[in-house]
Amino acid sequence: MPSSRSNRLKSHRLLFPAACLYAAIALPLSMATILAGWSWTPGLAGSHHGHEMIFGFALAVIAGYTLGPQPARWLFPLFGLWLAARLGYALAPGFWLSQLLSPTFALLLAWRVVPRFNAAKKWRNRMLVPLMLALCGLPLLWLLLGITPLPGATVLLHTGVVLLLLLMTFMSGRLIAPAVAGTLEKRGITQEARVQPRIEAALILMLGAAALAVLLPLPSWLSGPLLLAAGVLILVRTLRWRLWLCPERPDLLGLAVGTLWLGIGAGGFGIALMLNQGPSALLHLITVGALGTLTIGVMLRLHYHATRRQPPPVGLLLITLGAVALAALPRLAAGPSPWDAPTLLWAAAGAWSLAYAVTASALLFHR
């Protein structure tokens, strides 16, 4: 009789390509809905666009990375729920069932993932428990918008961005630091700055407090300086890894570029809040530059390690991560009134779609 382990599937092999294909398709549809007046995907316009970026795409990548091997009888229904949530929300965001599917997926994901982090001994590792609960709980708060006196959609989206910022900051450090140390040790170089626990602890506290301040919402003179200080610390931590000593590891260099996007985006977000300016353009340094670079870097790194026991090809990384940069910069240049610059928005959407279409192709066909 086959063991239960033999019936387990690696979650990333299903969820990573699906997330990439959704990212490649959803953004051009969003632009067409807003700029060309298409009416059949209303769930990709306005604040719904941010909803799908965080609760649709990002949660799918998080699920693929954190779930690990799962029984097929559990993984396929969960994936079907995610897919139904995306289709339902894009086509009919106001329908009660469409609104219910995303929170259901998020809560089931938390139920499956959170116990895996409970065994951690250090508080810095255990913080993944409340962080995952918070991220997976935001879709439920979104469901309750208009029913109870909760913060508005913009506040929830900004809170989601800060929580993603914290998750990406934590996970990128845990990926990059040991890999850089191992690479340098093979060449006889000692890497002193690895996880950098003091900086990591400060980042967890700062970004956690900033997320709470944005959610409540508290005055921007509280959240703004916290985000600015966190951005500076992220940049300092990245420089201390000395990644310029690892030119033979383009996958690590790509992840480092993602952390630079994180630091610049966090600092820019903080400055915008301190100046009481709309942060929408600067937020895309995090949601496009950092999220795009880090998700693609992690997905390709995990895929090529699992299938070929080697880093992703240099050319593939240059195309995908370069396209992400070409998506982030035009969106930043479009400024706080992006609909006045449709050419820049279409350029950003095209570059983003290219990055994820190429990534999806690599995940599906390069074995």
Automatic annotation (TrEMBL):
Give the domain of life: Bacteria
Query: Mind listing the UniProt keywords for this protein, alphabetically?
Result: Membrane, Transmembrane, Transmembrane helix
Keyword Protease set for record: no
Please give the coiled-coil regions recorded for this protein.
Answer: none
Q: Which Pfam families match?
A: NnrS
Q: What is the lineage of its organism?
A: Bacteria, Pseudomonadati, Pseudomonadota, Gammaproteobacteria, Halospina
Q: Where are the transmembrane segments?
A: 48-67, 74-91, 97-115, 127-147, 153-177, 198-216, 222-240, 252-275, 281-302, 314-333, 345-365
Q: What is this protein called?
A: Uncharacterized protein involved in response to NO
Q: Is Lipoprotein a UniProt keyword of this protein?
A: no
Q: List the InterPro entries.
A: NnrS
